[in-house]
Amino acid sequence: MALITDPATFTKSLADLPIAVYEPGESVLDAGSTTGQLFILRNGTVEVTRDGLGIAKVSEPGAVFGELSVILDRPHSADVRALERSEFHVAEASSLLTDNVTALAYVAAILARRLEAANDAIIEIRREAEADKQPGALTRALDKLGDLLVGPNPTHLPFYMPMF
Questions:
Q1: Which of 85, 96, 127, 151 is 20 to 30 Å from 26 at the Cα level?
Q2: Does domain 7-99 have CATH number 2.60.120.10?
Q3: Which residues pair with 21 in a beta bridge?
Q4: Domains of the chain by residue range
Q5: Strand order in 37-43's β-sheet?
Q6: What is the pLDDT of residue 3?
Q7: Chain centroid offset of residue 95 CA
């Protein structure tokens, strides 16, 4: 049974949150900053970059930014910039995630999907590397990533997906 059976329930729980609007080129989140807020995309398109490298373009309503920063109690590690006029529901993360069980389950589901996608990517790349019979740097990188994903040290849980 899924934690969230109806995504509309999550959307409905956002109805009372303030809306922030960002024009093309405007910064939504800056790497190194600490906002304590969650930004839930209502509409528009943003680009996520880290260390000057593009990570993703996101236009899916309901995409959440800032969750890892709050959960891990760290500054944001990526920049999020509007590519077109974009609207976000904005919430104080600590209260939304402690007072709204639906929001907490939604964020947990997003993180679980990211982890599953990372695992799938590791398997696919490993199969390709093994088929090419080229063990080298790529295989060592996959080994390291795999160790991190299942490693026992809870202070270094690197479920790496961009920490917005």
A1: 96
A2: yes
A3: 87
A4: 7-99
A5: 19-22, 86-92, 37-43, 64-65
A6: 58
A7: 19
